[in-house]
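Backbone-to-sequence.
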């Protein structure tokens, strides 16, 4: 155990980008294994090898900068996906965009035709919130 600890002492280690590369490699390997073309499964090993190379790298500053660039891309995408999923599961409200400022507005379902006033820009517009779902 001491040998492993000494070996990993100056290494970069695991981060979010390395985990994402491992997951991508596993998904690619699984997906490409259904194709009957030989050696296509090896394509899935490339992201895994890159991930292992990053984990064992001694260039900590470069790996940290790569991870920051990845997180600048990944975090907004993840937040949008979570927000979309929460809106899809919300059975008590309808979501509309303001025609003027394009902000997303939440109104209660089942109120019929209502006039919505945007709290951001003050624009008034009418929408049908429909009936309640059973």
């Amino acid at each position: 155990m001491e040998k492993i600890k000494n070996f990993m002492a100056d290494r970069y280690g695991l981060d979010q980008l390395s985990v994402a590369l491992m997951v991508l490699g596993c998904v690619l390997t699984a997906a490409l294994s259904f194709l009957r073309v030989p050696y296509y499964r090896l394509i899935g090993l490339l992201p895994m090898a890159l991930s292992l190379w990053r984990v064992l790298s001694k260039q900590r500053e470069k790996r940290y900068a790569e991870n920051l660039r990845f997180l600048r891309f990944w975090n907004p995408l993840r937040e949008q996906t979570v927000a979309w999923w929460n809106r899809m599961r919300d059975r008590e409200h309808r979501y509309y965009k303001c025609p003027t400022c394009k902000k997303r507005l939440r109104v209660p379902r089942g109120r019929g035709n209502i006039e919505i006033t945007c709290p951001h820009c003050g624009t008034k517009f009418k929408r049908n919130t429909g009936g309640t779902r059973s």
